[in-house]
Amino acid sequence: MKVFITGGSGWIGSRVIPHLVEGGHTVVALSRSEGSDKIISDAGGIPIRGSIEDPAFLKDQASKEDIDAVIHLAMNHDNFGGEGYDFVKQATISSDAVLALADGLSSNGQDQDRHKVLINTSGTLSGAMAGFGGKELSETDSFVIPIRPDHYDAIKAKGVTPIVIRLSPVIYGEGDKGFISQLINIARTKKVAGYLGEGENRWSACHVNDAAKLYALALEGGKEGILHGASQMGVKGREIAEVIGERLGVEVKSIEKGEEHFGGFMNMVLGLDAPAANSITKQRTGWTPKEKGLIQTIRESQAYFASK
Questions:
Q1: How many other C-beta atoms can be found within 10 angstroms of the C-beta atom of residue 18?
Q2: Tens of pLDDT along 69-114?
Q3: β-pairing verdict for 202-207 and 232-236
Q4: What dotted CATH number matches 2-169+206-232+277-290?
């Protein structure tokens, strides 16, 4: 197949491309700079300059006759969760991009023998925000988050096969700039590795390499549905704080003034209890995560604790 991917130069996307290439697929990836061009080329993809903020361009790329599938991973995560980060704006840009890509694929030679596939990216944490907090989110649980809908039904209505991969809030591994890196930086600065309440809240987690493999398996399977990028279904907040405290040699304790300690956005997501199941994902795709678990990775990592 020939695949167009957004976010191909990103942390996850640059790991997805080699899996696709190894599977015999040709990958064209959205690029926004010379640096992105190199990352994509080194991964085995073909860079094409454009912007995730240009729906007309995205529709045009997806509408090209030789494009069989689209993987949408792009979203601006620069300073994610930090001061000044506009989550609503970035989520809206990503949402508009999905619809443009679906429009392009829908006009691209659809017939009974050649179904086009669009793999969109969402998050298991959205389930907790939508009222599923406190229970293990299943791939069959349905919900809509207005600020970043997965557009499953809209994609399907256009005659395109929808696959939505809900990624864990904790995607970890070398190069991580997400929640774990932020928690480490906060603990280093505050001299305290903190958690909220009793620290019983759970987050699903997945190593970046295992997440990348799931995208390739989802594409090759080609079956519509919801999948969970969650190799670990629920890691407790206290366990994460304890291993961070162990590595930094700082106190580990419950934080009473969470917003003051963690910041508003981080405090909000830390308080969510958001475990996620993966049995349907494994059964449908044959996905078998192979990397070390989150706690062991943090305990053994040099990259997470390199001098800042």
A1: 16
A2: 999 998 765 555 556 656 678 778 888 999 999 999 998 655 555 5
A3: antiparallel
A4: 3.40.50.720
- What is the value of pTM for the model shown? 0.93
Domain ranges of the chain: 2-169+206-232+277-290
Using alpha carbons, list the distances in angstroms from residue 68 to 56, 80, 170, 250: 19, 32, 30, 51
Say how many C-beta atoms besides its own lie within 10 A of residue 57's C-beta: 18
Calculate ∠ Cα 298-295-182, nearest 5°.
Answer: 50
Query: Number of C-alpha atoms within 13 angstroms, CB side, residue 234?
Result: 18
Residue 134 DSSP SS3: coil
Average pLDDT, the chain: 91
Find all residues with CB under 8 Å of 259, minimum gap 6, and list them. 267
